[in-house]
Amino acid sequence: EAARQRFTERNLASLKLHNEATESLPGGNTRSVLYSAPFPVFMNSGKGYQVFSEDGHIYTDLVAELTAGLYGHSQPHILSTLQSTLTETGLNLGATTKLEMQHARLLCERFGLGRVRFTNSGTEATLHAIMGARKYTGRRKIVVFGGGYHGACFFFCEGGSAENNVDREDWIIARYNDIEDAKSKIESHATEIAAVLVEGMQGSGPCIVGDHEFLLAVQESARKIGAVFIFDEVMTSRLAPGGLQEIVGLKPDITTLGKWLGGGITFGAFGGREDMMQVYDPRVQGGLAHSGTFNNNTLGMAAGHAGLSQVYTADVAVEFNKTGDKFRKKLQEVSKGTKMTVTGLGTILGIHWLVDGRKELRTLEDRREDKGLLELFWLEMLEDGFWITQRGSLALILGTPEGELDRFVEVVKKFLEKYKT
Ligand code: PLP
User: Fold this and answer.
1) Which ligand 1 atom is the nearest neighbour of the CA of 66?
2) Which domains does the chain have, with CATH numbers?
3) Which family is annotated (predicted)?
């Protein structure tokens, strides 16, 4: 209560804006994940690895736009590309451009894709990957995993959409990290399944990491029944030069991408096996049309390409994720013997306060959070100048000083001592 009270007193401008926002937005909100009780903080601007609130507070940004903000708020190369694209190329041209060609080529190289198509978001990438798989196989059902999140209308976790989804009979939900369950669900519906759709780490878990053996077994089962194996790398593509699939040794039929790969501009993509992507070739009779006004928007294509070719190169990706691993290990060290649990891979992390004190998360059912501690932690981190999500997910921004990450570890340590958790 005291922490909530302090939060309210420190953020009166946000409170006022929130009240105004509720007059036109339901609950003052247009992205569910950004709502936080008692009311959300309104941000005013960002620079580098920091964000500045309407209440005049400065935060080190560990939300990083839910991993899409890999480059931070003013990476010079991204900024100058955006500026020159605006002034020299213009906004969408209503035509095919070299910009999409060059970004497509680089994505194919980096992620080992035969062909790729662009969308406006990760959600749309999922949608079209599924539609393509249905067209390719002539089947309808999709196997997904409890706790999975594949976009605004494709999530199978708390408040999930399976129940309300337009084609709810088409989902078969298996247990994550459970090879037997996955195999039996996939193989017992062998002739009906168009695709198996899985994340290598359930990012919205937050950060329930998939075992390599589990992911390889899921891929093998999908292959065995002739279903399309779709690997969702919308969040995890930043974890290695060629995405998490490179680390695990997977060869997905179709990979979905999004977030940072648009350089901070709205972005999504799906691609993979050339024969499967062939259904989208407009020269092929009886294929699938796939439109989207902003699919090849000039800003996203240019900024995405600039980032991938010149900023987040393979070497940088490797180093950055080493920094993330080091950071997670330091947090795990201070969490020993406490109620805090830290999960994640590389530069994406989840901080949990589990009622049963378990130190590892393997499935959705393992995640029973102490909601009070989760909120208290969020409130206190904000007071110490760290911007994190209320659900406890963190991602790193390229160029955040390591000293700031160390300060976060110290602040967490202080929190653990103060509340004797
Ligand atoms: N897939 C995964 C694994 C995600 O984490 C997300 C977004 O968080 C999506 C898909 C959807 O992407 P978008 O928010 O761009 O629609």
Assistant:
1) 8
2) 2-70+315-419 (3.90.1150.10), 76-311 (3.40.640.10)
3) Belongs to the class-III pyridoxal-phosphate-dependent aminotransferase family.
